[in-house]
Amino acid sequence: MAIADKRLQRREIITKAVCGKGRKFSTITHTVSPPHHPTSILGAWIINHQYEAVKSGDGIEVIGSYDINIWYSYNKNSQTDVAKETISYVELVSLSYVDPKHRSSTEEVTADATQEPNCVEATISSSGSSVLIRVEREFAVEMVAETKVCVVVDPNGSDDDGKDVDFGLGDDGDFEDLDSDLLEDEL
Question: Pairing relation of β-strands 131-153 and 59-74?
Fold first, then answer.
């Protein structure tokens, strides 16, 4: 069955598909002021990360929060305490790919934390009264919407009677060496 065959007709199917994708890595520094002037930092970690995604202009906003916990010593390393601070954030992730033919009234957005917020450095500020926390995080976002897909239809049906059709791909291993991660990134 050749596509140039005059008997074939074209149909447009409306379906939901990924119509936009984006990814953003960011590093941010937070300042936490414990009740006592810290002498040294004994540990810093992030817990209770929560977030949601919303459409915003040409991108997707990830709106969330997490708790920063800092275990520190004070009073010349004679006592310890844990300082806790809840951080709220809004991260705008631009869409690097957008299908221009999607129907914007049907958009649904999602976000996935490909790298959960993680404390990569904790240092005492130059004034000695607060702690600077450097946090890394990364999000991948997707926009799903209705779009049109064009298909070719043979009005006379097919002769396969529901049998499996061989499209000539064969089992010669042409696709064994393909890097599936690379293919996914290109879509």
Answer: unpaired
* Paired tokens of 136: 């890394």
Q: Does a structural domain hold residue 3? A: no
Residue indicated by tokens 């800092």: 70
How does pLDDT run across 2-53, given as a tens digit for each residue?
Answer: 555 566 788 888 889 898 999 999 999 999 999 999 999 999 999 999 999 9
The answer as to whether 1 is a domain residue is no
Domain total of the chain:
1
- How far apart, in whole angstroms, are the C-alpha atoms of residue 108 and residue 126? 46
Element (H, E) at 181: helix 180-186
Start-to-end Cα distance in the chain: 28
Report the candidate in 171, 149, 143 with the shortest Cα–Cα distance to residue 11: 149
Q: Residue 21 belongs to what domain range? A: 16-157
In a domain, 120, yes or no: yes
Does an H or E element contain 47, and which?
Answer: strand 38-56
Q: Is residue 94 predicted with pLDDT exceeding 60?
A: yes
Kindly state whether residue 182 falls inside one of the protein's structural domains: no
Q: Which residue has the tokens 């002037």?
A: 37
